[in-house]
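batch_manifest entry 22 of 60
target: DUF3251 domain-containing protein
source organism: Chlorobium phaeovibrioides
requested by: lab member K.T.
priority: normal
notes from requester: please return tokens only, no post-processing; we will run our own comparison against the previous entry in this batch. if the run fails, retry once and flag.
--- input ---
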Amino acid sequence: MYRLLYIAAVFGALLLAGCDQSSKVKTLETKVASLEKELADLKQTIELNQFNQMLSGFDKVAYLTPGSDGYSLVKSDLGVLTVSIANIAPYANGSKVTLQFGNLSAATIDGLKAKLEWGAVDKNGMPNNENAKSRDVSFNESLISGSWTNSNVVLEGVPPQELGFVRLRDINHRGIKLRR
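--- output ---
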């Protein structure tokens, strides 16, 4: 009889322990679900912030594609400039590109500098950024006020038939001239 009582007590303890374990598991499952929701919300917030950051600098990048008509507007440290691709020719192991700048300001701009990026595009026409090339460039030509100015740049490693895009960003200058 003691033995039966002992077995009943052990069995009861196991049932109680099982109930205790079950409630702990449910508590942990609830916490995990809550953390998963918080993580998903944080990921969404990060993606939104990255998108907003990308848009905030959108006007400071000129994205040009060979064969497209017109020009791109790009914000520099002095204001807005226009830029387009006027010509592309084979050159050594790459391409020689003539960029045409339009200076909308009343000042002549000297020592224009920019970050130049170029490369191929994928089958959807999107830039292949992983294999894109880039360098800082200084343009020797003065951008006369209210005028177009052509400037040649050599884009190494990408022949004209593979050139899908040219980007200019971080545009600034060394000096300006004003009429007297």
